[in-house]
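Morning. Coffee machine broken again, so started the prediction first thing and wrote up yesterday's gels while waiting. Chain of 413 residues, entered below exactly as on the submission form.
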Amino acid sequence: MIDIIKATEHLQPKVVLSAFKGITDQLLSQAYSAKNGSFNIGKIEAKHQELLAELPDPIRSQFQPKIEKLLKELRDTLTGVSYLEELTPAILDRIVVYGEKLATHIAAGYLAEGGLKGVPLWGSEAGILTNSNFGNASISEQSRQLVREKLSSVHLPLIAGYFGNDIAGRIATLGRGSTDYIATFIAAALGCKTILFKDVDGVMTADPKVVPNAKLISNMDYSTAIELGRYGSKVVFEKAIVPAMKANIPIEVKRFENENQGTLISGTGSAVAISCMRGMSLMNLSGIGALDQVGLILTGLCAAFVDDPIVAATVFRDGVSLVTSETRADKVYEIAVTVTGKDTRFEVRKALSIVALVGERFEISQVHETLRKANIETLSVMKTSTKRTICAVVNQAETEASMRSLHDGLLLN
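Came back before lunch.
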């Protein structure tokens, strides 16, 4: 990453950084451990001290106090959680972003070794204002002008990904793919291209860890990328595509070690791909009666899950079938009973996955037949409202087999 920044320094890049690998998961773990009375950030501290130790003494002595200050803040916050035995969404957001904060200072140290001055910026310092939906916030529209104002005079900003600040100044994280989201938002505000560096060659036709013969997609349109992100891709994320699409700004997805190939996401291109979502459930609500009550239930569900919507819904004669996260069963039933005012019949099947076939050229019958030939049970197969994606609901244990079957049986043919 440092070599890439050095090579493009003359272009005045705006760099958005994630935490180092595994750090965010460790911070989440320690936050919940603190709520239960104890915590240990030894591994987090050791990782960053190890990186500092590789810097020359004069540079290390310059950045060591900054790292120590952040680690002390982290310990103090976790101590407070441990003492109160309380972890609110706002406090959790404050804790989990220390990975990005630490990464910006470490990166600044390595750039200083190369004679460059990187300027760490966090949240509103870079113009990133959000709403107050802690854990899954969105960037406000007024941030567009703020980004231009804040970044116009900074030659080499090192912007912390993952979070911004709400109007009260509180840290709010932005959910899945939020470092990419911040990067594309800034690029759209400034009118420049986004390059997202990953540990894969680009966007593939499927996760290569699951489907070994997955192929690189050279060109992909925005709408396909959004669908792929919506249904579980680990490389492209729905939120991150939207700012680029609105501004018609291209996105390149590349591997760190290989800049000569990758995927271009723009207004043109044609692609098909497979993604998946695990930990899903199929919920059937029946005996509801009037169709307008089904509509009221769906409206209530959309309002309750506005920031993380129901994945799919199919309306039948006196009820509705939903595919959503398996943690939502109680809330779905509560909303249904509130609307109908009676004991609606409610059936739930958990431990499922959605395998999504993204691309307009396929039909439901093809998906059914391909999975049937592979002896894979399908609980439901439906085309989404965009008509670009077919979702197959399968047992979670058969997720990988379903992906390989659909990839080899349909995508490669």
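Residues 111 and 117 are 6 Å apart (CA to CA). Going to sketch it on the whiteboard this afternoon.
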